[in-house]
Amino acid sequence: MGLLALLLLCLSLLFSLSSGEISQTLGVCYGTLGNNLQSLSKSVQLIKGLNAKRVKIYNADPEILEALKGTNLQVSIMVPNELLSNISKNQTLADVWVRSNVAPFIPAVKIQYLLVGNEILSSSDEVTHISLVPAMHRIRASVKAMGFKKIKIGTPLSMDVLESSFPPSNGTFRAEFSGRIMKPLLQFLNRTKSFFFLDVYTFFPWASDPVNIKLEYALMSATNITYIDPGTGLTYTNLLDQMLDAVVYAMKRVGFPDIRLFIAETGWPNGGDIDQIGANIYNSATFNRNIIKKLTAKPAVGTPARPGIALPANIFALYNENKKTGPGTERHFGLLYPNGSNIYPIDLSGKMPESEYQLLPMPTNNEPYKGKIWCVVAEDANRTDLGSALGYACGQGNGTCDPIRPGGKCYRPNSLVRLASYAFSSYWAQFRKVGGTCYFNGLAVQTTKDPSYGSCKVPSITL
Ligand SMILES: *[C@@H]1O[C@H](CO)[C@@H](O)[C@H](O)[C@H]1NC(C)=O
Ligand SMILES: *[C@@H]1O[C@H](CO)[C@@H](O)[C@H](O)[C@H]1NC(C)=O
Ligand SMILES: *[C@@H]1O[C@H](CO)[C@@H](O)[C@H](O)[C@H]1NC(C)=O
Ligand SMILES: *[C@@H]1O[C@H](CO)[C@@H](O)[C@H](O)[C@H]1NC(C)=O
Ligand SMILES: *[C@@H]1O[C@H](CO)[C@@H](O)[C@H](O)[C@H]1NC(C)=O
Ligand SMILES: *[C@@H]1O[C@H](CO)[C@@H](O)[C@H](O)[C@H]1NC(C)=O
Ligand SMILES: *[C@@H]1O[C@H](CO)[C@@H](O)[C@H](O)[C@H]1NC(C)=O
Ligand SMILES: *[C@@H]1O[C@H](CO)[C@@H](O)[C@H](O)[C@H]1NC(C)=O
């Protein structure tokens, strides 16, 4: 073999090794907050059917890990938030946790990442904040002591750890975290050659400012919109790159320019409530297909600040999960319906030709809804649960349920559904502006159809 050939062989080996470690592959987040989801073994089949190479689960559920045995999927599991404080103070506890939740599944399950807590710095719980990095150290010590050399330790954070993210070169960690938590965290990640795990959704900044941020820019399908960062002169063509680079510059600002990013979660909701903009199948398919195309491209595309650097990622989520709380979008992030059917054709390996993508239903909510909305009892609401939900709603706010009390304008006909619809609407009309949702554990839905009757006028919100 010639010297040049040998050199080339070495180079390509080196390249394949390093790109193997930070491979351009996508995974899916397997959330299980639904009461109508497929069995664990069927779910694992469905994950493989999407051509996912990785899967992230939200706890160390032994039954899920059992179902993942023998698959080639690279698995991320989470240490529950509630345990961080105790683990940070107690090495024995860390050892016990790893020994009982991780060890039994190695090597049959390819456990690759242990994520300590979930979006810890987004909570207001100071005690967990300061426990985060010490807990990561303890978990790593346990993992090392047990000889699991391949497992990396990280923690997923969301964009709210930044105080400033625009322009990207202005990216800065929030002052209360910067020195106290981010620096030791980054030191840990840098020293252990782990990743900065980031939950990053272009949907949220776009939805809160759809006038100034163009939808195509957030969906990564703009061909004619660019933004030049005045600080660096770098040209941005989509919002995702901007958000990722804001984190890159924030890390650089505190002295860690080289820590790799791992997109722990990204995605776009395929549905939501009437008062939510842009959550639909068309946009969800567009965003997810675009990000798959970008992140599976070879050679790697990277971001303007880190051209050519691979970005591993997980799409959130496997299923639409009907038991998630909060606004409707939260229950509509799936690639699949609960029955296991695709919501739209998608292939996480990026190999499906675009010609195989069928026509999608055109979006009807890319503009904000204008008009009145009421919050009424959902068609399939469990009648037994309605009573206590009504009681809860009536107990909030000022005079919320006066009109449905005896003698009130809405007292008759006193059907439970009518009374509860009044209570839900009245509650929501008072509390929406401070974050109250029209949900009531799935008993309530938004409607544009006025439920008022006779002289009973049901309160509404007006957009
Ligand atoms: C943490 O440890 C304390 C004291 O040992 C114990 O009382 C508590 O239940 C533990 N918390 C959790 C979430 O395990
Ligand atoms: C540390 O954790 C172990 C295992 O759970 C427990 O037995 C022990 O009491 C804990 N130590 C302290 C000081 O809480
Ligand atoms: C940069 O971030 C700071 C806050 O960290 C903010 O006050 C400033 O307006 C930002 N600069 C630009 C150009 O947006
Ligand atoms: C980060 O890690 C690299 C490579 O191990 C090392 O050269 C560098 O000094 C580290 N940076 C900091 C700020 O610790
Ligand atoms: C970009 O192109 C789209 C479709 O071709 C067009 O609707 C839009 O107005 C263009 N935007 C800008 C900023 O030129
Ligand atoms: C699965 O559920 C979706 C949404 O409810 C429905 O449109 C589809 O027909 C169902 N598929 C099967 C195979 O039942
Ligand atoms: C309705 O809820 C009650 C109690 O919350 C439960 O016992 C019952 O099984 C539910 N009914 C249906 C049809 O789901
Ligand atoms: C109820 O009334 C009090 C006193 O007038 C007021 O401070 C409070 O904000 C009201 N609450 C709601 C939900 O409107």
How do the strands and helices of this protein lay out in sequence?
Elements lengths: L2 H19 L4 E5 L9 H10 L4 E4 L4 H6 L6 E6 L4 H6 L1 H11 L8 E7 L9 H20 L6 E3 L1 E3 L3 E3 L7 E2 L1 H17 L3 E5 L3 H6 L6 H5 L7 E2 L6 E2 L2 H15 L6 E7 L14 H16 L16 E4 L55 E6 L5 H12 L21 H16 L12 E4 L13 E2 L1
Parallel strand pairs: 1-2, 1-13, 2-3, 3-4, 4-5, 6-9, 9-12, 12-13
Antiparallel strand pairs: 7-8, 10-11, 14-15, 14-16
Bound molecules: 2-acetamido-2-deoxy-beta-D-glucopyranose (NAG) (8 copies).
One 2-acetamido-2-deoxy-beta-D-glucopyranose binds next to β7.
If you had to describe this structure to a student in words, what would you say it looks like?
This protein is of the alpha/beta class and 463 residues long. The protein folds into two domains: 354 residues, Glycosidases (TIM Barrel); 91 residues, no CATH class. It is built from 13 helices and 16 strands. α3 links the parallel β2 and β3. α6 packs parallel to α7. The longest helix is centred in the N-terminal third of the chain and has 20 residues. The protein is globular and about 70 Å long. About 3% of the residues have low confidence. The protein binds 2-acetamido-2-deoxy-beta-D-glucopyranose (NAG) (8 copies). The site of one 2-acetamido-2-deoxy-beta-D-glucopyranose (NAG) has 4 residues, from α5. GO terms for molecular function: glucan endo-1,3-beta-D-glucosidase activity. Keywords: Cell membrane, Disulfide bond, Glycoprotein, Glycosidase, GPI-anchor, Hydrolase, Lipoprotein, Membrane, Signal. Its EC number is 3.2.1.39.
